[in-house]
From TrEMBL:
<dbReference type="InterPro" id="IPR007184">
    <property type="entry name" value="Mannoside_phosphorylase"/>
</dbReference>
<keyword id="KW-0328">Glycosyltransferase</keyword>
<dbReference type="InterPro" id="IPR023296">
    <property type="entry name" value="Glyco_hydro_beta-prop_sf"/>
</dbReference>
<dbReference type="GO" id="GO:0016757">
    <property type="term" value="F:glycosyltransferase activity"/>
</dbReference>
<keyword id="KW-0808">Transferase</keyword>
<dbReference type="Pfam" id="PF04041">
    <property type="entry name" value="Glyco_hydro_130"/>
</dbReference>
<protein>
    <recommendedName>
        <fullName>Glycosidase PH1107-related protein</fullName>
    </recommendedName>
</protein>
<comment type="similarity">
    <text>Belongs to the glycosyl hydrolase 130 family.</text>
</comment>
Amino acid sequence: MPFPTDLLVFSPNDVDLSYSPLRSSIQAQTYVLGAFNPGLTRLPNGNLLLMIRVAEALNQPIIGEQIHTIRWDQAGGYVLDAYPLNSVNAADPRKFQLLGYPYKVMALTSLSWLLPVELTPDGTRVVSVHYDKIIAPQRTYQEYGVEDARLSKIGDTYYMTTCSVSAERHSTTLYTSTDGLNYTLRGIILDHQNKDMVLFEGLIDGKFYALTRPLGDLYFATRPGSDSFPGPSINLSSSPDALHWKPVDEPFIRARKGSASTMKIGGGTPPILTEKGWLLLYHGVELNGVVGIYRTFWALLDANDPTQLIQLHDTTPLMEPNSALTEPIKDQLYLSGVVFTTGIVEAGDHYIVASGEADLACRITHLPKSLF
């Protein structure tokens, strides 16, 4: 479906790596593997803010018979770790698997940090790149990077969830801000492999609510005749303070048989309250190759009871990957078939939606409210 505004607003070419936090201690040459999956919010001055994930990778990860990964070390800043090349499986360009363990152990081909980028109110042009406000690893549970920010403004506070990656745990961490630009780390709020945590942009009966998605390598079979597949799903949690979370007992959105997202699903934009209920955009993945095809779908939840689905649109995608957008930078592509929607704000008769395109760049799309 063509949209009135659908463009790439920020790409790896727009990142000045002289400001990279890695420059403080790594001399090896690096490049921007991707500048993507941006959190989105509106600042007090009316401009928009993208909180962009910058995945910084080594130009030459393989030297001789070793492959290297970047790690933040509390004692010595950023360091390079080496692994024998014959001890890994590097089929996925984003990570490699260390062989010889009784369970799956991965290492990343890049380390991610967050870059705040200010846009015009319509989201179509960059106003400022805030290199002085970069968010980088600062605790051992972030030793392999800070990924995939999601921004929700609740009352006078900006809440930002991120995925923190380490050997200790693969966790969700929380940052807060009073101005949308300067963030304070509040710590871990969900433990191991609970990804894509997205806070509702508003309280319900005085409680915070959030979408969560626990991951794992073991899932149990659905009952015979079930319309759902086993596997990753979107769940709900509530909290009195945004720090301490209790999962909602009832299941929520699952990958349905007959839908276009049979591989897995996960949270996308912070749910926002509309006249019809809470509007949620989420991603669904179709089994295809190593990574799959990522598309954007949507749902409406009851305004007073978000466990109640009013509408679920999981057969016809709202947004598809758009290879025409990445054509000017196609020499930098390492994946295809991915749109990963991560932010939404209101703008009169339409919504401004932020996505990561091909795990490479930031996409801005204007969606008419009449679509919902």
